[in-house]
Write a structure and sequence with these properties.
With 194 residues, chain A is mainly α. Chain A contains eight helices and no strands. Helix content of chain B is 82%, strand content 0%. Classes of the chains: A mainly alpha (194), B mainly alpha (163).
Chain lengths: 194, 163
């Protein structure tokens, strides 16, 4: 009798927790307002990420759209904003890799995306800034795609090793060494272009 | 064994990410530590580029992005539906062809007595179709069959589609 009671209590509590989990998952699925708010928070940074890892602004436009489409259609419930963001970057990385595979080359497009001199931001410091960015672009173009992704996630997005590993589909334990190597290579390239 | 990390990396990265200059003490350390010097060079270059690119990035508005996603989802649903309808039509066509071939095959077996067989079939068909029960139900049965055959593709579409 006591066993039956315990079992029924357990079953009820399990059912309740399952129902709660389902409700939580349902509330995490995106409606239009939620999607648009999330897009507003993430789209610019994601576009910059895509343009830097592919080296092509127009391709980045297309990949941005593809990324959000896949993200939305995946309909996955995320436990936190950070998890959701990681998932988005993971999709973006895969989308960029697919595009490179389809094009039968790995981001070999030349990067120098110099600023348009007619842009409203042009001022006296523009020359130095553009030069610095072109150096970075050249150095990035000479890196392995995975190193590029890793460096950008670490130092532009401020992602932790675990987040980088999740986004790039790698083991967290290997990130420290790989990031060190990528950074050392990048630093050498930056110094050599100066 | 090569050292791959320094205990002061996080301090340097935090300063760069916050847009602060390195303190004298931290700058002195970075000058003497290869790991921190690389980190400072790389992180500051990427950070500057990221900030500039964020200012210049032109992305579609969230409303446009949402509309494109919805439109694409609808197009995909239409593609799936038309694929299903095509499949059903092809299956029906294949079934019909098989049926016709089977009938023709059966008839060829009766080739020897074909005249006799046709006479019998003719008269038995006349008897059958002129019987009161059949004449009364023939039209409704015909229409029900036609409606069923028309609705089958739609029923299959609604059964298999994700939307």
């Amino acid at each position: 009798m006591r066993t039956d009671t315990t079992m029924s209590e357990t079953t009820l509590s399990e059912l309740e927790s399952l129902a709660a989990a389902e409700n939580a998952a349902a509330t995490l699925l995106m409606d239009e307002d939620e999607f648009r708010a999330f897009y507003d928070r993430t789209a610019r940074a994601l576009w910059v990420y895509l343009s830097r890892i592919t080296g092509d602004r127009q391709l980045a436009d297309d990949l941005l759209q593809e990324t959000y489409y896949r993200f939305y259609r995946a309909g996955t419930a995320h436990e936190s904003e950070k998890h959701r963001r990681n998932s988005l970057y993971c999709i973006a990385t895969n989308v960029a890799r697919d595009a490179a595979r389809r094009a039968r080359h790995r981001y070999t497009l030349p990067l120098p995306e110099t600023d348009d001199p007619h842009e409203p931001h042009a001022d006296d410091r523009t020359g130095a800034r553009v030069e610095g960015r072109t150096d970075l672009a050249r150095a990035m173009a000479r890196l392995d795609p995975r190193q590029r992704e890793m460096l950008w996630l670490a130092y532009a997005q401020g992602a932790s090793h675990v987040e980088i590993a999740e986004t790039l589909g790698m083991k967290a334990a290997s990130i420290k060494t790989l990031l060190f190597r990528a950074r050392r290579t990048m630093a050498r390239l930056l110094r050599s272009t100066k | 064994m090569t050292r791959v990390e320094c205990t002061r990396e996080s301090e340097i990265f935090e300063a760069i990410a916050a847009g602060r200059a390195l303190s004298d003490e931290l700058g002195t350390h970075a000058a003497g530590c290869a790991i921190c010097r690389d980190l400072a060079d790389v992180a500051s270059a990427i950070h500057r580029d990221f900030n500039a690119a964020m200012r210049e990035a032109h992305v579609p508005s969230s409303g446009v992005a949402w509309w494109r996603i919805q439109r694409r989802a609808q197009e995909k649903a239409v593609r799936v539906a038309s694929r299903t309808v095509t499949f059903v039509q092809l299956a029906t066509l294949a079934g019909t062809v098989c049926l016709v071939l089977a009938i023709l095959g059966g008839m060829s077996l009766m080739k020897q007595d074909w005249k006799l067989w046709i006479d019998r079939a003719y008269f038995s068909a006349i008897d059958y179709f002129t019987s009161p029960a059949i004449t009364q139900w023939a039209t409704p049965i015909f229409f029900i069959t036609a409606i069923c055959l028309t609705l089958v593709p739609f029923a299959i579409y609604y059964a298999v589609t994700e939307e």
